[in-house]
Amino acid sequence: MVSQFTHAARATHLEAVMRILRYLKSSPRKGLYFSKHGHLSVEAYTDADWAGLVTDRRSTSGYYTFVGENLVTRRNKKQNVVARSSTEAAFRAMAQDVCELLWI
Q: Is the pLDDT of residue 32 over 70?
């Protein structure tokens, strides 16, 4: 949520980032656990919220990528353009996820 304001961060955004960093520093044993499994299948799940933001009517894309049973990638991003339908918003989200899968 805070990362969408990096281009024009204000004092309240920087305070939120510092609070997040203090939390991470105080809890070093809490983290991601990657378990070892016999398979390395790659799975991806994607979704889009069509015109979810009332202010600019842009859609929000999100995807999760797993290798085996381990979460490797999670991303939520506001789409660059206003989608004309929920199908277009979902297609744009899927295109972003496929690019990530090709990279993996």
A: no
- Domain positions in the chain: 1-31, 34-104
Whole-model pTM: value is: 0.56
pLDDT greater at residue 21 or residue 38: 21
Q: Nearest-CA neighbor of 57 among 85, 95, 94?
A: 85
Helix (H, G, I), strand (E, B) or coil at 74: strand
Which residues, 6 or more positions from 97, have their beta carbon under 8 angstroms from its beta carbon?
A: 44, 46, 63, 65
Angstrom distances, CA of residue 5 to CA of 47, 52, 59 = 23, 18, 17
Residue (of 26, 1, 23) closest to 12 by Cα position = 1
What spatial distance separates the first Cα and last Cα of the chain, rounded to whole Å? 25
Q: Is the pLDDT of residue 18 over 80?
A: yes
- Helices (H) and strands (E) counted in the chain, each on its own, are 2, 3
